[in-house]
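Structure ticket #2291
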Amino acid sequence: MRIVIPTSTPDGLLAKRGAHFGKAPFYVIVDIENGEIKDVNFVQNPGHAGGACGNAVSNIQNLGADALIVSGIGARPLMGFKEAGIKVYFDNVSPTVGESIERFLKGEIEEIKPENACGVH
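Resolution: structure written out below.
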């Protein structure tokens, strides 16, 4: 499974999580196999154009993501990820990628439901 997490820094598992997935400067990519972290990389966010964060959805899809962990997301991009087959999980507690992945592996974070998406961007 490949999980993408928007971040403010390119520091792997120590990276500070970004508040806005489409405008975060970096994406940390965590590959998990058999419940263990197998690889950690990062890429610079190529940016996105306004309007429904469509470019952000395709940018993350192009990374081969199976899942995205965010602290919030609008309804339109959430729908875009669902249509792309990318699960979106909610974690607004963990300050770093490593802590968020740890919580994910323990089953402590859940998929975002459409009714929990942000109404105002």
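Closing remark: The first helix runs from residue 54 to 61.
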